[in-house]
Amino acid sequence: MADSAHKIHARQVKAWFADKQILQGVDMAIPKNQVTAIIGPSGCGKSTFIRCINRMHELVDVARFEGEILLDEQDVYGSDVDPVLLRRRVGMVFQKPNPFPTMSIRDNVLAGLKMTGRLKKSEADAIVERSLGKAALWGEVKDRLKEPGGGLSGGQQQRLCIARSLAVDPEVLLMDEPCSALDPIATARIEDLLSDLRQNYTIVIVTHNMQQATRVSDKTAFFLHGELIEFGETDSLFTHPADSRTEDYITGKFG
Amino acid sequence: MLDATASALRTVGTESEPAPRAAGGGEKLIETLLLLCAVLSIITTIGVLAVLLFETVSFFTKVSFSQFFADAKWTPLFANKHFGIWPLVSGTLLTSVIAISVALPLGLMAAIYLSEFAGPRTRAFVKPTLELLAGVPTIVYGYFALVFLTPILQAFMPQVEAFNALSPGLIMGIMIMPMISSLSEDALHAVPNELREGAYGLGASKLSTIFRVVVPAAKSGVVAAVTLAVSRAIGETMIVTIAGGAQPNFTFDPRGAVETMTAFIISVSKGDTPTGTIEYQTIFAVGSMLFLMTFTMNFITQRLLRSSRGKGL
């Protein structure tokens, strides 16, 4: 059933926090090496959906999940899947930049490899330079790699977090409103970055900002009340929405 | 969403600030009262220091520094007087080191369990129970060490004397452990969840997340907890007086009897030593030494914390 054009297949994904059902059964096929944006009003389940993909959802005590999510052909909720190993393949960048405060810029980049015991000392320098380079941060920090990551500006911190995720060499990068805490210039830099990254990674970005979705994504999904209302090419979804609820949302009638 | 709430709260705060202050004497009175409370504690501290210093200076006019620091015998109450402080210092250090080597690993592990593993119900039960340990009167701990733990230790190690450093040291460790676990747990709990998620998102296991990210981020709180606990151990009196013996031996063998600085002070001040004599003044000299030790330790810790904070903490 899985095809090579799609990296992730979600089938009848349902999620709960305690008794509150957040996702009502989402079916969605996420294309490989493209940027997929998920938009929708607050509380529509878009963040919960991507947190189901790398099994971060289940870290909350009262969280529950039903359904099937295939990464390539493997069910990520299969009994043979270790969520810790899964998260090395499916990286995540969070809403608020969260560099590790006790680590230097360099150690932040290497943190994932160090924590999973996969760092070869001889490769460390190359990995640091390559990852920071991909995150468009190398030029700004190459002379102060030993300084704490918390000393960078918000936008730089977020790019450091992207570099940190890339260093563990994931296949998918989930981004949960990565620019919501950033100013417009820092936001623009991250958006530029996404168009470069999509050549090698499958990117899913949750965003509040519809302009951002039109700028960065190939496909866009519109979530409302835990359901996937519409999913299609970004250009056509924003110019000719098929569903009236999508139209109401993108024209600003609610949300 | 939390950010929004926080900024909303902040707005409320700034709006209420320029509101005119309640005028009149009532507020002034309360302000003065509060100031007096703060001043009172400062005055007390200065008073304690002044008495310590005064008696200590008077002690050192009769006993030279070299008699105090370059002698390994402490017999100020005997006819043949020696004033070497080191036996008391070694007794204090020995029991404190034993205590902290019990309390630090146990306390930290308990804190990690409570903060990172225990469910809310377990935490609600275990944490106050642990804190109860700190509320047991030290005299009870002292007799517990003397009549319960020491015989057990002797059963395993026949060389252990009836009075020894090991037994009160271990019991002191149990006593200060809740201090470390409780304060460290607060520090671990305060580490923002985003950091844990960041580590999980990189494919880190729970254990490496805890030891590489959470504990380092809580370091300043843990260090503060340990400092407090060490000060408590150094200053602890009853347990070591009862179970440690009263023999100022310059030794680091935990099996034998020792006398700590606090135990010496107690033994002199509860006796009938007349004020103004050299025997009486020794307790102030020892007290000053004790104060110097805890003060130095707090100072070093403060410096450590400041430098680690400078590195992004």
Can you describe what's shown?
The complex is a heterodimer of chains A (255) and B (313). With 255 residues, chain A is an alpha/beta fold. Chain A has helices at residues 46-53, 83-89, 105-115, 121-134, 138-141, 154-167, 184-197, 210-216, 234-239, 244-250; strands at residues 6-17, 20-31, 35-39, 63-71, 74-75, 90-93, 172-176, 202-206, 219-224, 227-233. In chain A, the strands form two sheets. In chain A, strands 6-7-8-3-9-10 form a six-stranded mixed sheet, with helices on both faces. A four-stranded antiparallel sheet of chain A has the order 2-1-4-5, with helices on one face. Chain A has a domain at 6-97 and 172-250: P-loop containing nucleotide triphosphate hydrolases (Rossmann fold), CATH 3.40.50. Chain B has a domain at 86-268 and 289-310: MetI-like fold (Orthogonal Bundle), CATH 1.10.3720. Chain B is built from 13 helices and no strands. With 313 residues, chain B is mostly helical. The longest helix of chain B is centred in the N-terminal third of the chain and has 38 residues, at 25-62. Chain B has helices at residues 2-16, 25-62, 65-69, 86-117, 120-133, 138-156, 166-189, 193-201, 206-217, 219-235, 238-243, 261-269, 278-310. The interface between A and B is medium-sized, with 35 and 25 residues.
